[in-house]
Amino acid sequence: MSSRIPEELRMSRADLIQATESSRWAVEVAKMEEHVSGMDYRMRGTEGQIGGIEFNVQVNSESTEQSRVSSVRLRLIVPEGYPNSKPPRVYPVDMSIPYDDSAHLYRDEDDSVHLCMIMEEEWTSDCTLAGMMILSSLWVHKYLIWRNTGIWPGRSRPH
User: Fold this and answer.
1) For site-directed labelling of 85, which of 33, 50, 61, 79 has its Cα 20 to 30 A away?
2) What would the pLDDT profile of 111-153 be if each residue is shown by its tens digit?
């Protein structure tokens, strides 16, 4: 069980039972509607298969003292084999984020930059897309503070 995703955003025993009776995606959507509906999310993909989700993170004034960012649009890409594969990747859509190791970022083979919120070994099948969206929101706020102060708030771990 992953400790990075808040408990209410992980798949519970009841959620797993519901997923076998309906579908994993139905449970995921219910969690998104309950916990992240204010993120103006839009699902992308083909029928019966979520390929990704675009969503907004509203930014508080503490994070943006020196930058004029009020919201950030992100794209969460669901990997093939989800949830029994690698964690989804989250990419900035409307904000340029240059690669910097100390900013908790990863760089893809094509030099695209995505957010580091959870280590691969922490990803388990009880993690959810809503949980990743919440971690993304926390990351954005920390990133903006880091960009303004040069200090990453909270605990950090080497990649």
Assistant:
1) 33
2) 899 999 988 888 999 999 999 999 999 999 999 989 888 888 8
Q: How far are the Cα atoms of 39, 61, 68 from residue 35, in angstroms, in the given order?
A: 9, 22, 26
Q: Token match 């691969």: residue?
A: 120
Q: How far apart are CA 158 and CA 142, in angstroms?
A: 16
Residue-wise pLDDT for 21-32, tens only, equals 999 989 999 999
The angle at the Cα of 70, spanning 69 to 71, to the nearest 5 degrees, equals: 100
Determine the angle formed by the axes of helices 24-35 and 13-21, rounding to 10 degrees. Answer: 130
